[in-house]
């Protein structure tokens, strides 16, 4: 039986981080079933035809060049006592320490018609290929359910490929977990004017049809008709339904084991240790806490999975670091707008703090320079401590650097007064005038009120 000092179940960003961080310092085995690990974030853009599908596939060398052994197989059982896993093709594999990095699966709600042929979720290479193939075969309509970042990026891709696109969400506005309404209102308008049919405050109640969906029934009894699939002719494919309503931890494998699992995934401490000795878990398969409140909070992002992997690898090599929790800085792009959010939205922050908010609007570079674009920020602060608990940006230029700066303020407990004194840089092509800075201005706005 093959035995590894460190065996990782999974081949996503969490597992890859372990391979990169441990290198040849331990004998590492990485087991994943799929032919290719994916660059998930880039998948919608392959549908949009901005890049070829092949560019969304990670090369195996990302693991093997780091001295880890890649085993393309699926783990079907675990024996924590015997320290082995059972696999589909390679039989039993032994370990000294086991890392679970099995990720999360998209949710497909059990509504009427959810198992019809043209209903899917979106995560795998197979999903990506299926959508591209359907578009190339003349897909006429797509209904995307879920107006979070993945759903919106998908809807935009369908729309760009001239497929009639419907985007449905129960929420009052798009991206409700990332930003607040007054920040996104204008962007939402731009979605509609780009041709996407937006159905907010609405939900899909049933998918009607025999083999394939022929009609999508919404909560307000509105119906999106696909028409029957005409198998005999070369006619176009009528429609496709894609659910992008969230992820659930992929932990079925451990259901009847002693591993402690709760609603949001495997329970771990801040060193990624589970309740089972020598078994660790990292990434989307885990349940963890908000770095702001210390309470259990969702955080299924690659930018959370990677640092979790780094902390664990550091400790396995003799270090003593702790993972600070989820801050959830994230971003997307809608038409000409770059959108980002971090920490809590105002709606969420209100549940935990007595808050005050401040806004500022400047330009991305000196306003007198060609190409200057508008940039708008919202900061959310705790009235009691003056610490930042959330921030949002809508900009004509990429926003992640600004979002990361706000995350840094949240993560390290920086107060409004400290932000007001923040020492920034300025240059005509790269910032607003030296007279002001977006984050400083928003902090000052809040300080005027509280
Ligand atoms: C379309 C899309 C866009 C996204 N965009 C962003 C973004 O812009 N920014 C961001 O931060 N995050 C984004 N995410 C989320 C991000 O991809 C995930 O948070 C990240 O992949 C989690 O990494 P992970 O390693 O924990 O899990 P995963 O990447 O899900 O990897 C899990 C691995 O475990 C393997 N596995 C599962 N069960 C078994 C088993 N029994 N045996 C062997 N192997 C198994 C799987 O096959 C897979 O290789 C996006 C996700 C999607 C789907």
Taking pLDDT < 50 over at least 5 consecutive residues as the criterion, the unreliable ranges are: none
* Overall pLDDT score: 96
Number of strands: 28
The portion of residues assigned to helices is: 10-25%
How large is the count of helical segments? 11
Our count of domains comes out at 3
In terms of structural class, how would the helical and strand content be classed? alpha/beta
Task: Classify the fold: give the CATH topology of the largest domain.
Answer: FAD/NAD(P)-binding domain
Major sheet characteristics: 7 strands, mixed
Strand-residue fraction?
25-35%
- Please state the overall shape, judged from the principal axes of the Cα atoms: globular
Report the CATH C-level class of the largest domain: Alpha Beta
- Gap from first CA to last CA: 66 Å
How would you name the oligomeric state of the polypeptide chains in this document? single chain
């Amino acid at each position: 039986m093959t035995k590894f000092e460190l065996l990782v179940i999974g081949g996503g960003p969490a597992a890859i981080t372990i391979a990169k961080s441990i290198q040849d310092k331990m004998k590492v085995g990485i087991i994943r079933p799929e032919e290719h690990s994916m660059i998930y974030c880039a998948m919608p853009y392959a549908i949009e035809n901005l890049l070829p599908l092949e560019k969304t596939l990670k090369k195996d060398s990302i693991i093997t060049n780091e001295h880890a052994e890649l085993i393309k197989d699926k783990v079907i059982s675990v024996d924590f006592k015997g320290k082995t896993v059972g696999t589909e093709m390679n039989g039993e594999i032994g370990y000294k320490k086991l890392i679970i990095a099995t990720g999360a699966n998209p949710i497909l709600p059990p509504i009427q018609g959810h198992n019809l042929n043209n209903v899917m979720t979106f995560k795998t290479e197979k999903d990506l290929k299926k959508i591209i193939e359907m578009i190339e075969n003349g897909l006429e309509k797509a209904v995307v359910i879920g107006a979070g970042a993945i759903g919106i990026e998908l809807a935009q891709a369908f729309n760009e490929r001239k497929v009639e696109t419907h985007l449905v969400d129960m929420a009052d506005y798009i991206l409700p977990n990332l930003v607040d309404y007054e920040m996104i209102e204008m962007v939402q308008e731009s979605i509609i004017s780009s041709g996407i049919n937006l159905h907010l405050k609405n939900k899909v109640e049933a998918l009607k049809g025999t083999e394939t969906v022929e009609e999508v029934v919404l909560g307000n009894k509105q119906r999106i008709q696909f028409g029957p699939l005409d198998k005999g002719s070369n006619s176009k494919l009528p429609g496709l339904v894609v659910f992008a309503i969230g992820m659930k931890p992929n932990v079925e494998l451990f259901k009847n084991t002693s591993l402690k699992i709760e609603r949001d995934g495997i329970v771990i401490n801040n060193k990624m240790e589970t309740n089972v000795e020598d078994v660790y878990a990292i990434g989307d398969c885990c349940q963890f806490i908000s770095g702001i409140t210390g309470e259990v909070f969702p955080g299924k992002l690659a930018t959370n999975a990677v640092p979790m992997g780094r902390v664990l690898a550091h400790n396995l090599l003799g270090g003593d670091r702790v993972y600070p929790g989820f801050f959830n800085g994230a971003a997307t792009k809608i038409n000409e707008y770059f959108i980002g959010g971090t920490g809590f939205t105002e709606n969420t922050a209100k549940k935990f703090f007595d808050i005050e908010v401040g806004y500022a609007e400047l330009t991305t570079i000196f306003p007198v320079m060609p190409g200057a674009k508008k940039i708008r920020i919202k900061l959310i602060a705790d009235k009691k401590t003056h610490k930042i608990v959330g921030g949002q940006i809508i900009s004509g230029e990429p926003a992640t650097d600004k979002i990361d700066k706000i995350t840094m303020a949240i993560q390290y407990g920086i107060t409004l007064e400290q932000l007001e004194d923040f020492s920034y840089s300025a240059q005509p092509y790269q910032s607003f005038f030296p007279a002001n800075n977006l984050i400083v201005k928003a902090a000052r706005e809040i300080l005027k009120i509280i």
